[in-house]
Each structure stands twice: as structure tokens, then as C-alpha cells.
Amino acid sequence: MFEMYQNYADYKCWTFDILNYVPAEIGGLHHAAAHISGDDVYRHLKYEGGTHRVQRIPETGLSSRMQRIHTGTMSVIVLPQPEEVDVKVDPKDLRIDTFRAKGAGGQHVNKTDSAVRIVHLPTGVVVECQQERSQQMNKEIALRTLRAKLYQQIIEKQLSQEQSARKLQLGTRAQSERIRTYNFTQDRVTDHRISYDARNIKEILSGKEELDKLINRLLEFAEMEALTEYLENLQSVGGEGC
Fold first, then answer.
1. Which one, of 215, 206, 208, 205, lies nearest residue 47 by Cα?
2. pTM tops 0.90
């Protein structure tokens, strides 16, 4: 999934900077974070936030009769990057810890405490960065990530106050509710929000044209929902004035 979005950024000619990358001890990826910049990045990726489900048969060497479909989930969080003036952070509200960056298997990748963890005491939001060898660079990246998370909290609070019950709520629904399923056994990707099935799962996971088509379908659907709600609100206001 991480590589899919990395490839998609390359396909869209965006800049993709890895902020944090922590491999899982059993292989694969435990968690990661990246900063993506370019034209209309947030517009295209804001609906990717949520729980993505994967259904596949693990390569365990069992006979076909003994093989069973394995279901796993991944959480994707998409945050807009605010400008410096959008979110003001008081240094007195921060606790900054340093530690040694770790690579695959848990070993330290350098001998200095270059990794940085920042805790925003009023909200309890925690961010960390360990990708750079410089502690100062990691601190600056972590502060940008913190501002983005605090900005997202502000946006979510506003949305919760303003959203109608009918609105699609793309990108703001609970992380526990799956938004998309990648079914390897059926070579199918299903986006549950728009009831859309796409074939050729490998092409979608390659992060290029097929993923772009799926994302654009989401954008079209969300824009139609927003237009429908706007027109209904106009009718409602007009009816009250009669």
C-alpha cells in the first residue's frame, strides 16, 4: 500500500518524502509516514483516509485444499499540510524526547540520538521522525507533522458541527469502517463508498492509471453529492420563505 501511494505520487509528478518508516519484525511494514507535495495533492488523496481491507491466500506452502483466505486491514490517514500561520504551537506546550533511530529487526541505525518524538501536552498528540541523520531536521519535520495533526483536529471539529446526516462523509468516517477491499483471489478492488468494483488488482496496486481512474470516480461522486446537497439546501431555504 505504501509503495502504491509512492508510485502514484511519481505518476502524478508529485514529490514524495519519507518521514518515518518502521519495518515489522516478521517482515513487511509496521507503520510509515510521508510528506507529499505538488498540484492538487490533498484534493486527490483526501478520500484515501480510512481502513483498507486486504483478502488473500498467504504463501504458506499448504495444499490448495488447506489454504484459506486471510483478511487483514491497514489504516491510512491523510492530513493537509497547513502553513506556518494556520496553527500556532506554544513551545511551552511541547515535550520533546530524543532517541536512537531503529531499522529493520530493531537494530540502531546510528550511534546518536537523532530521532525525535514530540508530545503536544494539551491534546496528547504524539509525533515522531527518525528518517534524517540530523536531530534538528527530524525536529523540524516532526513539528510540521504535529501542526498538520492539530489542523486536522480543527477541521474534523468543524465538520462534525456542520455535516448533515445525509452527507457522504468521505474521508471523515470512522477508521474502523472499511472504505475499500483488495480481494486477490477474485482479482477485484471494491470501493464500498460508491459501490464500485474494479478488476486487475495488480494494475491498481502499481499506483498508476487504474488507481487514478478509481480516485477520479470518487472525486466525481463526492462533487455530485455536494452539489445535490447544495441544491436541496437552496430549495429548503426557498420553501421557508414562501
1. 215
2. no
